[in-house]
Design a protein that fits this description.
The structure holds three protein chains of three kinds. Chain A is mainly α. Chain A is 79% helix and 0% strand. The chains are: A mainly alpha, B alpha+beta, C mainly alpha.
Chain lengths: 287, 347, 260
């Protein structure tokens, strides 16, 4: 170990001396941005020519096709599922975050329990939900509902909510935790009981966290592939599935690219619209 | 109006308050004074209902409110951090308590205006707390606490963090308002100037127990324990034994004696003698009175309206004396100080 | 509100919270439990526990191969991601330029854009620049995907770093490079390592973009699991999943130890 450190030390020393004065911190930031630029932004931009049927009389063929009912459906469904998942997840997350902030005796342990699922791959968690809802699973035996729930929209939304729940709890907890405790005392002394205090003081002050959590969950849910793939049927296909399908099953790179570009444009548009109402920068601070 | 009976609070094994009892009469301004950790905030929070007593009872207007939650106690409270709701305007902050106490919409409007006028902030109704200065926030905090005419007003070190000039202004302003409205008030602070200047009665707390309860004058002039004598006000201290021969003096440093007032402890007792700085007179030449000692000036601090001199006496004690501003002495001068035997505190 | 109603309210609340924790953790619990089933279908073991599926796992070369690939890719991308992420974090925290806040959002793009898009864009891009699929594509792709996590972790550590330490080092005679090596580096290295470990975990479990980046003989564990899910549920999938879980949890826990 010490031998390695010696050589590492000399290397950094030499590199450092060479770079000193020539490489500033701005350059470092630039390097980071360039990496993402080269390996994400550029590839996505390259999809644009892919999506166009250049050299033929119908360059926008793929885009025209994308306007077909089925694909519009997929976009709309992704939006709606995103909203539904966000609603469910936020409700559950608020309860958990509230518990963590005000009622939990051992916050660290509770917090770990919430973060542990994040360490486990999405695919395994969806697998678990699949098993839970399967005909031979516990859900069927408990409620006798049978296989009816699997491969339906509610199944997908429950799955998405389950998987993204920790992402919503964290910013909400941050927000709730930073509320000055004396504000709550003040509200009580001024005559408000616990419910009034929650409604008029705690909730309004937790809105930043709520907005951040909602944004994260919506974006993740709307763009989810595995959720609908594992837990949904053909009628639960979302954008990600449609795009992947076009690419992997039909080898229609052009069409897949067109759909991908449309998705990206919509996403950026959504974020810009969001920014006008909520100021994205502040929201990002809360993550 | 308020009776605290045997209030005790344990946090696990830690005793924050131990069997504290005191009363506040209607309209009185009482201060809980003590260093940090003495239990004064805990006591205040218990009276508010924010902390549950381990033992003891709290009575408001004769009723036992110990089990009552804060929102049912009809008390007003101003917090150390003002705790003004940042997402509401000044008006909404004040209206909050009124709404919770069942005032009608029209009454709320009137009361909010009255409250704003009371604290001299009639044009600030639409501002948010973040837009106000520290002093203004404290005034709004008070207006909010008093809006619904509570039975008792609790103040948790509201003047901490304000600059000195503002602190003094706020003290007299606060007391004036309190007298005007006549609301029973309990004030918590570690600042003895707050306590002495504003209160009708002071409860000095130390380690969860009441050391002394009395008027500001009696706390200052007649402290009942060394802690109170040292915590409240400055003093010069001499330790020694009461003279065996006539019981009217304290022997310290073998030969020097200090004449004592009547009623001093019996001969042979070990005592500490305290003299307040304003009772010590300094001159260049001895005048020939009792309790006169020579010393050398160590330091002179000009405090604006008076000077505080630190004088080293023969036995090494440092005496503190207050003189008029810009005294004629300089550091290193030999002086004589003297004090009246009747002004001496013996504990 | 009487004391009993308060009690009841408190208990209901606690009950609901407990249910929610159960909701959150149930899927994983089920996957683990059903891996021990005696039946040929992943079901909760009723009659007894069996390690049959783990045995099958150990004999399946394809599955063991996928495990190897995943390990290599995760390690490679974790290292690369830690380096680039740290450089970017240092650069952003320690410099000022117009629109810095907005530009730093770029570093988070891989988290925001659906991994499907990322996968497709990358696979086309790599073929254009003649980067072969399989290991190179996987490692680079996973690096991009885990970059935001490292960036956020190291950035947060740097924001609370007391720069007076560096100033002291300089005054004491050390040049910037040495200062970084002897002062800054050691202090932020737990965060960098933690970031690397998280990058490892992210890579190990990544599926959605990975499905585009694999080549026939380099498949990763999540892809294998998905394929198996498609063809039919057998408890071997569970066994593989449990192995995945163990690896990820162990790495994540070590990361936590380091970060604190």
């Amino acid at each position: 170990m010490s031998v390695e450190r010696l050589t590492l030390g000399r290397v950094t020393h030499i590199v450092g001396e060479r770079l000193q004065g020539r490489v500033s911190n701005r350059h470092l930031a630039l390097l980071g941005v360039s990496f993402v630029g080269f390996f994400l932004i550029l590839p996505i931009i390259f999809l644009i020519p892919e999506s166009l049927n250049l050299g033929s009389s119908t360059p926008f063929e793929s885009y025209r096709r994308a306007m077909d009912g089925i694909y519009i459906d997929a976009f709309v469904r992704s939006f709606i599922f995103g909203l539904a998942t966000t609603a469910v997840t936020l409700a559950l997350a608020y309860l958990l975050a509230y518990y963590l902030t005000f009622a939990a005796k051992r916050v660290r342990i509770a917090m770990t329990l919430i973060i542990v699922p994040l360490w486990i791959a999405y695919i395994i968690r969806y697998f678990g939900i699949l098993l839970f809802l399967s005909p031979a699973g516990p859900f069927a035996s408990f409620t006798g509902i049978g296989p009816g729930l699997l491969f339906t929209s509610p199944a997908v939304i429950i799955g998405l909510a389950n998987v993204y729940l920790p992402f919503a709890v964290l910013p909400l907890y941050n927000s709730l935790n930073t509320i000055n405790k004396e504000l709550i005392d003040a509200s009580r002394v001024l005559g408000a009981n616990k419910w009034w205090t929650i409604v008029k003081v705690i909730f309004p002050l937790s809105l930043p966290g709520l907005v951040a959590a909602g944004l994260i969950v919506f974006i993740l849910a709307a763009g989810s592939f595995l959720g609908p793939a594992v837990l949904g049927g053909p009628r639960q296909s979302m954008i990600a599935n449609v795009i992947a399908n076009a690419f992997l099953e039909n080898f229609n790179i052009q069409f897949a690219s067109a759909l991908a570009i449309i998705y990206t444009v919509l996403l950026v548009g959504f974020l810009i619209a969001f920014n006008t109402v909520f100021d994205l920068q502040e929201v990002l601070e809360d993550i | 109006m308020l009776e605290v009976e045997g209030f005790t609070k344990y946090y696990g094994d830690l005793c924050a308050v131990d069997d504290l009892s005191f009363r506040i009469e209607e309209g009185e301004f009482v201060t809980l004074l003590g260093p940090s950790g003495c239990g004064k905030s805990t006591t205040l929070h218990a009276i508010a209902g924010l902390v549950e007593p381990t033992e003891g009872r709290i009575r408001l207007r004769g009723d036992n409110v110990t089990d009552l939650p804060p929102e049912k106690r009809n008390i007003g409270m101003a917090f150390q951090s003002t705790a003004l709701f940042p997402h509401m305007t000044v008006r909404e902050n004040i209206a909050y308590g009124l709404k919770m106490h069942g005032y009608s919409k029209a009454d709320i409007e009137d009361r909010v205006e009255e409250s704003l006028t009371l604290v001299d902030m009639p044009e600030h109704g639409e501002h948010k707390p973040g837009e106000l200065s520290g002093g203004q926030q404290q005034r709004v905090s008070l207006a909010r606490a008093l809006a619904y005419e509570p039975d008792i007003l609790l103040l948790d070190e509201p003047l901490t963090g304000l600059d000195r000039v503002l602190q003094e202004e706020m003290r007299s302003w606060l007391r004036r308002i309190q007298l005007e409205i006549g609301v029973t008030t309990l004030y918590v602070t570690h600042d003895q100037e707050d306590a002495l200047s504003m209160s009708d009665k002071v409860v000095v707390l130390r380690n969860g127990r009441a050391e002394q309860i009395g008027s500001p004058e009696s706390i200052y002039e007649s402290p009942e324990s060394p802690f109170v004598a040292e915590f409240v006000g400055k003093s010069t201290q001499f330790t020694g034994e009461v003279d065996e021969t006539d019981g009217k003096a304290v022997v310290y440093n073998d030969t020097k004696t200090i004449a004592l007032p009547d009623g001093a402890p019996s001969p042979g007792t070990d005592v500490t003698v305290y003299v307040r700085p304003e009772d010590i007179k300094v001159s260049t030449e001895p005048v020939g009175s009792t309790n006169e000692f020579p010393g050398t000036v160590l330091n002179i601090s000009n405090l604006g309206n008076r000077a505080e001199m630190a004088i080293e006496l023969a036995n090494g004690t440092t005496a503190l004396a207050h003189t008029g501003r810009f005294p004629d002495f300089g550091v290193g001068d030999d002086v004589c100080l003297r004090f009246d035997a009747n002004r001496v505190i013996v504990l | 509100m009487s004391a009993t109603t308060q009690r009841l309210e408190g208990l209901t609340f606690q009950g609901i919270v407990a249910l929610m924790f159960a909701f959150l953790l149930l899927p994983v619990v089920i996957v683990v439990l059903t891996s021990f089933t005696t039946q040929t279908f992943p079901a909760i073991p009723q009659e007894g526990f069996s390690l049959e599926w783990y045995r099958q796992l150990l004999q399946d070369e394809k599955l063991l191969g996928a495990l190897t690939v995943s390990l290599i890719v995760a390690t490679g991308s974790a290292i690369l991601s830690a380096i680039v992420g740290t450089i970017a974090a240092v650069g952003f925290v320690r410099s000022t330029f117009p629109y810095k806040q907005q530009i730093s959002t770029v570093m988070l793009l891989p988290m925001i854009i659906s991994p499907v898009i990322t996968g497709i864009a990358l696979v086309r891009y790599f073929s254009t620049i003649q980067l072969s699929s399989g290991y190179p594509a996987l490692i680079l792709g996973h690096t991009v995907l885990s970059l935001p996590y490292v960036f956020l972790l190291v950035r947060s550590e740097l924001l609370t770093f007391n720069e007076d330490l560096e100033r002291a080092s300089r005054v004491l005679g050390a040049d910037p490079a040495t200062t970084f090596r002897l002062v800054t580096g050691p202090i932020i290295s737990p965060a960098i390592l933690a970031g690397g470990f998280i990058a490892f975990v992210v890579s190990f479990g990544e599926f959605t973009a990975t499905q585009f980046l694999i080549s026939p003989d380099t498949s990763t564990v999540p892809v294998v699991i998905y394929t198996m899910l498609r063809t039919g549920l057998t408890p071997t999938i569970n066994a593989l999943s449990v192995v995945l879980i163990i690896v990820m949890v162990v790495v994540a826990l070590s990361s936590r130890r380091l970060a604190s």
